[in-house]
Specification:
alpha/beta, seven-stranded mixed β-sheet, three-stranded antiparallel β-sheet, globular, binds pyridoxal-5'-phosphate
């Protein structure tokens, strides 16, 4: 592969010390009990980012496995599941729930705004009796972060088990899993943690474990069955062989995050700067509220197609940017400022390349993004 600057909202750039872990010594993770201790240590490091004392698991699959495993393990046929939907991932969560027999109700809200707590509260007053609710922390396709700090305690106060997709927010947005009483939080290796794609991480509360244990019907999956992991540490056994090299990589990436005390502020400050620069230069942001710390979604200027912008950025400057899919296709472009992407030099290079790409694509001359950026510092 050619060297690229990957400024997409995941996968992200990977630091050399993370890549280099592939040279670390390996063992047989099934037989060597030292590996059990090591895996447990990596989970403990991750707990610091989750802010939880709940169990944390690392599963061998991309973030999607975390979403599917949560649905497969919690949902029984006929269970009432509330899917909170203000974007593509929010809506898509319902499809996983239906696969496992859920009776899905969508709470569908404005796609350009974060979920309003008061409105959800009014909805719950007249629509009770949900067993599970699915939520998305950061709607990556639209760049909107939902206030899970208020939504999850509200749902929990109604006795609803909450499952939060935090794949693109984890380590970039504030997350207080225990304080906010979140039953399952799902993260991924390839977004703000900036390791390779291929691992998903879940925190699982005692209530979520109880719901799985107290099912009437067995879980209709093997690889997505979280109960197989129950008491893995006490049993000193994994359900199947663990991808040791990927876990070495993940741990190094987690340590990189933890070695920097204020990684959330770096994301917040960068996101604020990027929004200010684009609006100062006459661009329009897609979102109206709930602006994400980790991804910014900007409307394409008149007359510019995404494919032309993407190809120019890639071929002329070696920079990859994100686009829109579904209802956002060819309407927006996205910059992922997650983890390793969220540093001044990379943002500057991206903005400078965008300035030149827009000039090449005939967008009328306005203020230069990279110049406004330099002036802000
Ligand atoms: C990236 C992401 C996932 C994982 O899905 P992929 O698109 O396959 O990477 C899940 N949820 C959200 C919100 C994501 O941003």
């Amino acid at each position: 592969m050619k060297r690229r600057l990957i400024m997409t909202p995941g996968p992200t750039e990977i630091r050399d010390n993370v890549k280099n872990t592939f040279l670390a010594p390996v063992t047989n993770p099934d037989l060597d009990l030292d590996f059990v201790e090591y895996y447990s240590e990596v989970c403990n490091n991750l707990k610091t980012i989750f802010n939880t004392e709940n169990d944390v698991l690392i599963l061998n699959g991309e973030g999607i496995l975390g979403l599917e495993a949560s649905c497969a393990s919690l949902i029984e046929p006929g269970d009432k599941v509330l899917c909170i939907n203000n974007g593509i991932f929010g809506k898509g969560f319902g499809d996983f729930a239906k696969l496992y027999g859920a009776d899905v109700t969508y709470y569908s809200a404005d796609l350009k705004r974060s979920i309003d707590v008061k409105e959800l509260s009014d909805f719950l007053d007249s629509n009770p009796n949900f067993k599970i609710a699915t939520l998305v922390h950061c709607e990556t396709p639209s760049g909107i972060t939902n206030p899970i700090d208020m939504l999850c305690p509200l749902l929990k106060s109604k006795g609803i088990i909450t499952v939060v997709d935090s794949v693109s927010a984890f380590a970039g947005e504030p997350l207080l899993t225990d304080k906010w009483q979140i039953d399952i939080v799902i993260a991924g290796s390839q977004k703000c943690l900036s390791a390779s794609p291929g691992l998903t991480i879940l925190s699982i509360s005692p209530d979520a474990w109880d719901a799985m244990r107290n099912r009437k019907n067995p879980i209709a999956s093997f690889y997505s069955n979280l109960l197989l992991w129950e008491n893995w540490y006490e049993k000193k056994a994994f359900p199947y062989t663990q991808p040791e090299s990927n876990i070495h990589q993940l741990n190094r990436a987690v340590l990189n995050v933890l070695e920097e005390c204020d990684f959330i502020s770096r994301h917040k400050n960068t996101a604020e700067k990027i929004r200010k620069i684009f609006t100062d230069c006459g661009f329009e942001l897609y979102a109206n509220s709930g602006f994400s710390n980790t991804v910014t979604t900007i409307l394409l200027p008149d007359g510019v197609s995404f494919i032309n912008l993407f190809e120019t950025m890639k071929n002329d400057f070696g920079v990859l940017i994100g686009g829109g899919f579904d209802f956002l296709e060819n309407k927006i472009f996205r910059i992922g400022h997650m983890g390793e992407n969220c540093y001044d030099e990379k943002i500057y290079l991206t903005l400078k390349s965008l300035d030149e790409a827009f000039e090449k694509l005939g967008v009328p001359k306005g203020k230069k993004l990279h110049k406004v950026y330099a002036e802000l510092d």
